[in-house]
Write a structure and sequence with these properties.
The structure holds two protein chains of two kinds.
Chain A: E1 5-10, H1 19-31, E2 36-41, E3 78-81, H2 82-87, E4 99-102, E5 108-111, E6 113-116, H3 118-126, E7 130-133
Parallel strand pairs in A: 1-2, 1-7, 2-3, 3-6
Antiparallel strand pairs in A: 4-5
Chain B: E1 3-7, H1 16-23, E2 29-32, H2 47-53, E3 58-62, H3 63-68, E4 81-83, H4 85-94, E5 97-101
Classes of the chains: A alpha/beta, B alpha/beta.
Chain lengths: 134, 102
């Protein structure tokens, strides 16, 4: 079976709705099928990978650490829209430093997060075979 | 008769928060919970709207919801008060009525 390019589009903040967690679970399932997986964080989706999430006060499971495991499943294309960050008063420094290990480069740690402009995001979305929207 | 307005939708995703600001009157209180908590952060495309409302209204945010989304209290707009669940209950008791902008 030919490899397809799968894009998971994340547009919701975590915890308020179940979309973010559901997306992450489906991404991890997809990882088992060895497809070309990318994630896009657009609009409120950027809060999903915000640094320093602490859910002690709301009694919900903090699943943000799971994004750090994506690299182990060769999911290392996390596109974050620059304009979405700016509209929310955020910068790349407010995001978790999510990395992957490149086995072709002596397991060097490399960043998975790629900050792209809205125009670049449009091109990236257009370049996919399948889109899952969350 | 003061009213407590409870908002739980992100101001960047829905117009519920904006609609709340457009309908709350002087002396009312506004409490941000769940996804609305991110609206408390300063320097966003929404913060000027909220600051304008704060001229004659009290604004509160549920601290647990802010922390869950990785937003620290030191980056919220000056004058917004952070409350916990007990503070949430106090607000409902202190106001004559509540309205949720779901």
């Amino acid at each position: 079976m030919a490899t397809k390019k799968f894009m998971y589009v994340n547009r919701k903040a975590p915890y308020g709705t179940v979309y973010a967690l559901e997306s992450l679970e489906v991404v991890l399932i997809a990882a088992a099928f060895e497809q070309d997986v990318s994630l896009a964080f657009i609009d409120d989706g950027v809060y999903q990978i915000a640094k320093g999430q602490n859910t002690d006060g709301i009694g919900m499971k903090n699943f943000s650490a799971t994004y750090n495991a994506l690299g182990d499943y060769e999911i290392n294309k996390l596109y974050v829209e620059k304009e979405s960050l700016e509209e929310r008063g955020l910068t790349e420094d407010d995001l978790m430093p999510i990395v992957w290990e490149d086995e072709d480069d002596d397991w060097a740690e490399k960043p998975s997060i790629r900050i792209v402009s809205r125009a670049e995001m449009a091109d990236i979305l257009a370049d996919q075979d399948v889109h899952y929207s969350f | 008769m003061a009213m407590l307005h409870i908002v739980n939708k992100s101001p960047f995703e829905r117009n519920a928060f904006k609609s709340c600001l457009d309908h709350a009157v002087a002396g009312d209180s506004i409490l941000m919970i769940e996804d609305a908590a991110v609206g408390a952060v300063d320097g966003t495309v929404f913060s000027s709207d909220l600051k304008a409302a704060m001229a004659d209204k009290s604004v509160y945010v549920l601290g647990g919801d802010l922390a869950a989304r990785g937003m620290s209290e030191d980056r919220i707009i000056d004058g917004i008060k952070v409350v916990d669940y007990a503070g949430f209950v106090d607000l409902t008791a202190e106001n004559d009525k509540t309205q949720s902008w779901v």
